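Quick one: structure for this chain?
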Amino acid sequence: MTSLDGSHALVTGGGTGIGAAIAVALDRAGAMVTLVGRREGPLRIVAGALANSPFVVAADVTDPIAVGLAFDAARAANGPISILVNNAGAAATAPFSKLDFDTWRRVMSVNLDALHHTCQAALPDLRAAAHGRIVNVASTAGLKGYAYTAAYSAAKHGAVGLTRALAMEFALTNLTVNAVCPSFCDTDLVAEAIATIVQRTGRAADVAREDMTRFNPQRRLIDPVEVASAVHWICRPENRSINGLALAISGGEVG
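Got it. Here's what it folds into:
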């Protein structure tokens, strides 16, 4: 029952990093994958590596109208959505005293508001599916606090809270709702954060990278493939009792 044959998985933020790794993992398990993101080019590159009727649609997940149109196009291409992976995200770092409201709203919009839009757009399909799945890609920042990441931590805590609330609300249906919470991953997002640290502090890039890995007891960045493997496990049909989980993928930083 580990196969996802016949499933239609929609992955937001599917053009790079964790989202791309998740798309590959679900495709290899037999799912038809729709990739959604703001930039069509990276989505098409990922789709080129997929085998099972991949579909690409460019959309801004912070716009509920755009989400609705994108999900309609996905259904027309690959049928009802049975797996929704909310991976799109954005981070910003700043002392809270210097965190302007526009940045706060931007981070909230991508990391939390978008989950409202996508979950509602897919909900009729997910509730009708034999094995409906929502997997929210949160962060260890949704399980603990990090200095200088107030907006991101607040948004990811919200994503974990939404996960747990929906898991209870739909517990008597075939839909499960879970979150994966990776620590710092070896992705473009972390590379950009390292570059920002270098620019602002003058520290060397390897020192900035080491500063991030110090949170992980294994002293390394998480491989996106590890996150993708966890998502696949949650989506397997036999794992119907895995519900309301916020799974830390952190080398032991949080459990």
